[in-house]
Design goal:
- There is one protein chain.
- The protein has 164 residues and is mainly alpha-helical.
- 29% of the residues are buried.
């Protein structure tokens, strides 16, 4: 793994820790409480990160895993967590998908071409290498970590440590 990919993976791992850390201590009910008028909740956002971000970008797009590609959710399906699914299972699934993504990242050169591209979703490719996907996923995960910061503050007033 080249130093640039190692650095990007380190930044992504930091954002993943942020996602899980800001939610630490919330019970199942709080994790499912809608925090915005659109109705999304923290658990749905984590499931989105699991399925639409980690699994989609690394195991489908970078690695081209046919089984993963066939099982991809459609529309906003990933945001919907069934009421009988325990919150701990959703959080554990995120951790596991991050591990699986890490295995793809460490086994793939930074300039490797992508194995699959979803033309039906995005048209012509606008990302071309693992490096491009890493930058995209770091940005998306950081954005959603910020959403979770705001949601947590709305839920119980807790704030993530912010250095100024």
């Amino acid at each position: 793994m080249d130093s640039e990919v190692r650095t990007l993976l380190g930044v992504l791992d930091g954002q993943r820790r942020h996602v899980l850390g800001i939610l630490d201590g919330l019970d199942d009910q709080a994790l499912r409480r809608p925090v915005l008028p659109s109705g999304w909740h923290c658990l749905g956002l984590v499931q989105h990160l699991t399925l639409d971000v980690e699994r989609f970008w690394f195991r489908a797009v970078v690695a081209g895993d046919e089984e993963v590609i066939r099982g991809l959710p459609s529309g906003d399906e990933a945001w919907n967590v069934a009421p009988d699914v325990p919150a701990a299972d959703v959080l554990d699934r995120y951790r596991r998908e991050a591990e699986l993504a890490g295995a793809v990242i460490t086994a793939t050169p930074g300039d490797a071409a992508l194995a699959w591209w979803p033309h039906d979703l995005f048209g012509a490719p606008h990302l071309h290498t693992l490096r491009d996907v890493l930058l995209h996923v770091v940005t998306e995960t950081a954005c959603h970590a910020g959403h979770l910061d705001a949601a947590r503050e709305l839920l119980d007033g807790r704030r993530w440590l912010v250095l100024t």
